[in-house]
């Protein structure tokens, strides 16, 4: 499998506190990962750093086999890497306009945006909400709208920050059901989570952040330090 993203020497400090010092992080193309670790260990920070939303110290970085920098964060990575917040922020327009916003911003023709948004709403099971003010959405609906909004951008790497946190019952199951279909479209997905059902999804590899280091774990529970 070919590497989509490799980052060497990924270091994050908050003042005197060293949050993580990761020798090497490699994410393969068209692969899915869960990123686990105790509360406060730095999972969100790591995802946000990869998305260019958090200043971080990085050595050599390669995306799609080409050297890139995380500072300044290149436009090509901004297009290719999408981060979905645990509590997604929505514009006070309609659900449909929120989902299409990124495509409109990229200058896509209106007719194409409308068709893609329609398909994404069907995929996420939110078509009945198309004209709804996002402020009225439940937590589960909001997360599914956020996933649809990310999916239409066809990212190479999708970073999901605790997509099922604060959800239970059917709302949680609806979000979990969407994840394998995201993986099918060739997107690499990394999910920060504590959710056992996400961790146990078929084909999902596990990354564990512990004591500032990243461990790669197989499904059988074997583990080893990252290089
Ligand atoms: N600007 C900041 N200054 C100092 N410390 C910060 C700052 N931002 C985050 N932190 C700290 O960094 C640590 C990592 O936070 P982060 O949200 O990445 O953890 P997490 O593993 O995602 O946790 P959780 O599972 O609870 O969501 C926390 O201890 C947090 O308080």
Automatic annotation (TrEMBL):
Gene3D superfamilies documented for this protein: P-loop containing nucleotide triphosphate hydrolases
A GO MF label: ATP binding
Keywords from the named record: ATP-binding, Cell membrane, Membrane, Nucleotide-binding, Transport
Stated name of the protein: ATP-binding cassette domain-containing protein
Domain of life of the organism encoding this protein: Bacteria
InterPro entries, per database record: AAA+_ATPase, ABC_SmlMolc_Importer, ABC_transporter-like_ATP-bd, ABC_transpr_CbiO/EcfA_su, P-loop_NTPase
Transmembrane segments: none
Organism encoding this protein: Massilia suwonensis
Species lineage: Bacteria, Pseudomonadati, Pseudomonadota, Betaproteobacteria, Burkholderiales
Coiled coil segments of this chain: none
Keyword Ion transport attached: no
Residue span, ABC transporter domain: 5-226
